[in-house]
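EI: anyone free to look at a 295-residue chain?
SC: sure, send it
EI:
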Amino acid sequence: MSSIGRCIAHELAALGAAVVIAARKVDQLKAVQEEIRLLGGICDIMVVNIRDAAMTAKMIEDIVVKQGKLNCLVNNAGGQFMSPASMLSSRGFATVVDLNLNGTFNMCKAAFDGYMGERGGIIVNIVAEVRNGIPRAMHTGAARAGIINMTKTLAVEWGPYNGIRVNCIAPGLIVSSGMKNYNEDVFNMLASGHWMNPTSRYGTESEVSAGVVFLLSPVASYINGVNLEVDGGSSLSKGHPEGNDLKYNPEGSLIPAYIGWPEGKANVYRIKHVDAPPLVNALLDKYKKIGRSNL
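SC: here you go
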C-alpha cells in the first residue's frame, strides 16, 4: 500500500469514510493505517492476495460483517516490470495479467456476490493510459485494456442491480513513489521528458485521487462505464525533443498542479510525499511552485 493507493486512502479518510485497505504486505498496511489514525481517520487493514478468488471473497465477507456495508470499492492493486515484448516470457506475461486483470475481476465479483448485487455500490478500477499501447510494458497494457473493457461490460450488466456504477481511472505518468521501481536509466529518461505532453508536466497522486473521489461521489451518479483519463492529454499527443511540430513548453507547465495530499492541506499532513528518486521528487517541488493557488 503506497503511492496512489496510499493517497486515495488518505483522501477518503479525510472526507469521513471508514476506509479498509488491503494488500499482501502487512508492514505497508500498518504504516498507512497509523498515518490515517494519527490524523483522526478511520482505517482498518486486511491482508489479501487478489489472485486468490476464495481469499477475496472471504475478505469482502469479513468487511461486511465488521462494517455492516460496502458502499465503494477501489481496485488499485497491480504490478508490472519493464520489458520489450520480444524479450517477454509467457510466464512473465501470465503473471502480470493474472495480478492486474484476473485480480481486479476477483475483487469486483467478490464485491458483487458479497454485498453490491443486493444493495448496490460503486466500483472504481485504476488502470493506465493504454490508448496507443505501452511500449516495453505490453503485458500490463493488455491487462489494463482488458479491465477497461470489463468495466464497460459490468456497467451494462450490473447497473440494474440497485444502481451499481463501475468506472475506470486511467492515470498518465504520475510523480509518485512508484517510480522507484524503475531502474536509474528509465526514471532519468522519464524525469527529463516530463514536459512532453499537452499539459507540459506529469500529474500528481492527488490529481488521481481527486478523480476517484469524484467518481465515488453523488455528483457522478449519471456516470457509468467510463474510462476517465487523468493524463494531461498525453493519450492524445506525446511530444518529442526533436522533430515535433507540437511545441510543448520545456520550461514547465502553465497549468497549476493540484497537490491536495500529503502536503497540500495547510500542512495538516506532515508526511514526506514520496520515497522516489531525487529527480522525481525535484519534479514535485517544481510543480508545487506553480500550484500554490490551489492549496
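EI: The chain has a mean pLDDT of 88.
SC: 👍
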